[in-house]
Amino acid sequence: MSPRLRNIAAIVIFGGFALLPLLAGxxxxxxxxxxxxxxxxxxxxxxxxxxxxGYGGMVSFGHAxxxxxxxxxxxxxxxxxITDLGxxxxxxxxxxxxxxxxxxxxxxxxxxxxxIMITLAFAQMAYFFFVSLSAYGGDDGVTLAARSTLLGExxxxxxxxxxxxxxGLLLAIYLLALRITQSRFGRVxxxxxxxxxxxxxxxxxxxxxxxxxxxxxxxxxxxxxxxLANQTEFVSPALMNWHRSGELIVMVVLGGIGNLIGAVGGAxxxxxxxxxxxxxxxxxxxxxxxxxxxxxxxxxxGVSGLIRRIGGAK
Length: 314
Fold this sequence. Notes:
This protein is an all-alpha fold. It has 13 helices and 2 strands, in the order αααααβααααβαααα. The chain starts with a helix and ends with a helix.
């Protein structure tokens, strides 16, 4: 996607979300804000995954583990009497970073389907670890006493405030990821995806760049977990099961791999389709799958590729 088209798409998506609470108020449909907050949180996770999938060529099938780490950071700190959102975000990042560092260092010793399976294995290990935490409900999960506080006040209890905070985090993470991909680090990461042997021959260490990107991606996904915990006010290991990782990959593929705003758009489209189709049938995944197949067959670059064709961009 060209920079011009990408910027237009970003303005449309972020501008549309910014105006959504006004529309919800006019229509008297406050539930739209709740749904939109969930979409924004998953958009953060999809964007984090696209950073390594689209630019690093690393197909992680275990990124939902970081959603769970972020969510449980909220639950554990709240149990300890720490309710500040900033501290919850910091704790989620601090917890996700070493997990991503260790598991990433091991996973990156493999390639292709082996990398996919080993990231899945590590995620399932994390899943069963949290299932074993009986103090936090085990497999049943735990209900949060309240949402995180902001500036010492329970501001996030207001759905609109939570929505705008999540939107602000998504925008900040999008700009950060965009900056990363446009930097020398991002160019080396992309080059490593295309030809790691050649990058090594000109003096770069593909392993270090890939591992750094993997850790950054895991930390960003943990931020999404914090916001999901606040949106649902409930935390359970189900948040980090393998099918959730698959859903994140679907979001990225649907929006367009290697296209940050496409990952955000893919999350929006996927969750809106889920919400819409589930109203008509309990077998909605079947119809969702057919739509996904149609999009992929029509464009290798997902919805963003279709938009580029319509816009006449090269």
